[in-house]
Design brief:
Layout (H helix, E strand, L loop, with lengths): L2 H13 L15 H4 L2 H15 L7 E6 L5 H13 L7 E6 L3 H10 L6 E3 L10 E6 L8 E4 L2 E6 L2 E6 L2 H10 L3 E4 L1 H13 L3 E10 L8 E4 L2 E4 L5 H4 L4 E3 L2 E2 H10 L3 E7 H7 L2 H7 L4 H16 L5 E8 L1
Parallel strand pairs: 1-2, 1-4, 2-3, 4-9, 9-13
Antiparallel strand pairs: 5-6, 5-8, 6-7, 9-15, 10-11, 10-12, 14-15
The chain binds S-adenosylmethionine.
The site of S-adenosylmethionine has 18 residues, from helix 2.
Amino acid sequence: MKFSQFFTSWLHKNYYKNAVNIGRKGDFFTTVSVGELFGTLLAKHFLHLIDKAILTPPLQIVEIGANEAYLSRDFLKALLEFRPEIFQYLDFFIIEPHKKLRTLQKKTLLGVEFHHRKSLQECQFSNAFFFCNELFDSFSVELIDNGTMAFVEDFHLSFKPLEQNLKQRCESLELFKGELSIELENFFAQLDKACQKFVFASFDYGVLKPYDFSLRLYHQHQVFNFFEVSLQQFFGKSDLTYNVNFTHLLKLIEEYNFTLLHFQKQNTALIDFGFEELINQYFNNKKHYENLLSQAKILFFNFDEKFHFFEFAKL
Ligand SMILES: C[S@@+](CC[C@H](N)C(=O)[O-])C[C@H]1O[C@@H](n2cnc3c(N)ncnc32)[C@H](O)[C@@H]1O
């Protein structure tokens, strides 16, 4: 089978389908598992977009790849604190293909009115605000190596000549060796079809000029090089991920005539979202102030420069 099929089977038909924990009890941390600060800053950013009339309510709010829905919970909690009156103009959705994760999400968001959808293909949004954290790095990829692509049989990799359509894609991206995600292209087509208007705010790690494979496994907070482990041993039991190709992402934004609103390092973006204003607000509440500061230290220093915020829109 093609490597992308193997990837989907590993990650989506097994690993995520079984509803994994993210954070201390799981295989890896994300900014969401650090605490509520991340979702709170995202809520501040969302309100700025409204104040600058880039977003105009009524709106559909949509999270994709929510896992336990902690980011949605923190985002909504902050909105309730900052601007409760906005809720009458919002309709909230989570796009989640996996049943077990839908159950976890309902538990986290107990008491919150929201709708589940299994995929973007069953959605029609007139005016949406999407947010997601580390979604694109879970999209299936082909492994490309100088005119060849990977196949997997009985957990063994082999490289055969590149299909013609992929060859053209690689040439246009100047990609000689690394991961190529056709799922990313399909996702853009679905997004365009599903929405009349949207702003899509997303955080992921990646590079602009990949020159080698970055595919790796996360298992109980240890990182393993994909090419150095027994695939049979780890199959479906560890997270499988890679650096997102930002050149591919930017090219798709251009091809679809979407508008790029932001593409910047995650740390800088979180400051721009209003970190200073937020922290000053709690200066007289020592416990909360210190708690936010310790989360900020982790957010700003433990997530390296590959972590980016990008935001694009169909206006
Ligand atoms: C790395 S996890 C993200 C975790 C979470 N956002 C966080 O930051 O802690 C990626 C998630 O995206 C989901 N996912 C991948 N492709 C998807 C798609 N097309 N639609 C909905 N969810 C998707 C996976 O099932 C998985 O739950």
